[in-house]
Amino acid sequence: MKKGPIGLIALAVVGFVAINSVFIVDEREKALVLQFGQIKAVKEEPGLAFKIPFIQEVVRYDDRILSLDTQQIEVTPSDDRRLVVDAFARYRIADVVQFRQAVGVGGMRAAEQRLEGILNPQIRAVLGSDGVTSNTILSADRGTLAARITAGVRSRAADIGLEVVDVRLKQTNLPTQNLDATFARMRAEREREAADEIARGEEAAQRVRAQADRTVVELVSESQKEADITRGEADARRNAIFAAAFGADPDFFEFYRSMTAYERALQGNNSTMVIAPDSEFFDYLDGSDAVSGRPVP
């Protein structure tokens, strides 16, 4: 009767031991079997694995590509224009044994601290090297700079069992204390460019205005010249007609001219004239033959 409980206890003990002897390695992780802090086995293939219960323990590490966002740091390129840089790195655990030996029980937190300690000095070294200016960092060449940073970090990160896949510069800004001065300088440059554009526009407008004035003067002069020529030709033709008329009948021509003079002189209510009585102007007004010595037409 007493063997039943003992058997159950023994079976439970065996089951407990068996459970603590088996563990599962996921395809997204790597595992180390430790015995008193010493590495006894490395499990990188997914599936079931075994360990000695109560003596050995299993430490798991993520085998996927991980991301590390660094704190913002200030860098000084070769043009002495300080910049605040924010970068991130993608990495994975390549050698889990070397990783464990390097970081110990600190795990991923210690690994990221060491990786950031490698990454930040490398960023300062590359971005502060000769020939690298703030304009270079802010241009399309930043991809080349990121590749140089990645190469430098990768070789040093291998010492702690990490493989750095990529390093990128997320943001590159000016320090807060320099923003006002930079904006003021940019504003002054834009205002200077605007003043230059206005001056060039005024100069162009003056040229167009001067050309238009010159064209007006030339057109008016040419028109005046043509008008004078036409007027002169008309006057010559009129004089020729008058001369022909005068030659055909001088008495009638003289009479016509006198009548025209009377019409112009005696317009409206103007009938008073102060003139010598023997003036030729009265030849056709008094109707006397004695005045002009010729008959009235």
UniProtKB/TrEMBL annotation:
GO function terms (MF aspect): hydrolase activity
Band domain span: 20-186
Name the UniProt record assigns to this protein: Protein HflC
UniProt keyword annotation of Transmembrane present: yes
Membrane topology reported for the UniProt record: Single-pass membrane protein
Compartmental location: Membrane
Signal peptide residues on this chain, from the entry's feature table: none
Transmembrane helix keyword on record: yes
Pfam annotation, one family: Band_7
Predominant cellular place of this UniProt entry's protein: membrane
GO cellular component: membrane
Lineage of the species this protein comes from: Bacteria, Pseudomonadati, Pseudomonadota, Alphaproteobacteria, Rhodobacterales
UniProt entry keywords in alphabetical sequence: Hydrolase, Membrane, Transmembrane, Transmembrane helix
Role: HflC and HflK could regulate a protease.
InterPro entries for this protein: Band_7, Band_7/SPFH_dom_sf, HflC
Family from the record: Belongs to the band 7/mec-2 family. HflC subfamily.
Transmembrane portions of the chain: 6-25
